[in-house]
Amino acid sequence: ANACTAGDSIKINVNPNLNIDLSSSTNFLCYGDTVFLSAILTDSGTAGVPVPHVYEWFPVDSISDTSILNPYAVPTYDMIYSIRVRDGLLCENVSSVNIKVNPELTIDAGMPDTVCAWESVQLNTTIIDSGTLGVPSPYGFEWTPAKGLNNNMVQSPVANTDTTTMYYVTVLDSNFCSATDSVEIKVSPPIIVELDNDTLICY
Q: Does residue 80 sit in helix, strand or coil?
């Protein structure tokens, strides 16, 4: 028998590693705060021509600029931000960060009021959006200035002052997220009554 053989070969090219690393300035935000994102290409794969790499952020909601590697974001709810990099051979890699957002905390310090000097008036803080309640105390309160208040660390202190004052209240929830509002208490000027000298009249 004839011992005929045949052979062939194929070369498999393996793309160099392509890796991107995404980090964030924090993983927890109070509502309305800003997180700074930073993406670094740690392994470059095969650069394309004329564009070495193509980057894609997702989701794009609340990201300041999706065309750069170091944007900032202001999410209003829990969010997973990701960035995808694609090289010249269309190989790709994705990196992500998880950002947790505290529920919104908003308050109302009430309507301004006008009183006489040293007349007592009760201030009150209304919680509009609750944030994250603590246990056993849902919130911490601090009114400033403390002068003239019977207790500046409660929700509804009593004010007693002889000068017009703008009071500020700051509320902290269990995650130390805060909200601030203010109310003005105006003090009316004193009423001065002057009488003339005594006058004698006949009946």
A: strand
Task: Specify whether the CB–CB gap between 106 and 128 falls below 8 A.
Answer: yes
Query: Is-contact 41 85, C-beta < 8 A?
Result: yes
Q: H-type helices in the chain, by residue range?
A: none
C-alpha distance across the termini of the chain, in Å: 163
Calpha distance 118→183 (Å, rounded): 17
Residue-wise pLDDT tens digits, 47-102 = 999 999 999 999 998 999 998 999 999 999 999 999 999 999 999 999 999 999 99
Instruction: Classify the C-alpha dihedral 20-25-28-34 as positive or negative.
Output: negative
At 125-177, the pLDDT tens digits run: 999 999 999 988 999 999 999 999 999 999 999 999 999 999 999 999 999 99
| Structure confidence by residue, pLDDT tens digits, 149-163 | 999 999 999 999 999
Among residues 89, 87, 93, 75, the alpha carbon closest in space to that of 27 is found at: 75
Distance CA 72, CA 34 (A): 7
Q: Is 123 within 8 Å of 151 (Cβ atoms)? A: no
Neighbours of 71 (CB within 10 A): 20
- pTM score: 0.80
Describe the strand order of the beta sheet including 28-29 as a list of residue ranges: 28-29, 92-101, 79-86, 54-58
Task: Please answer whether residues 88 and 52 qualify as being in contact, where contact means their C-beta atoms are separated by less than 8 angstroms.
Answer: yes
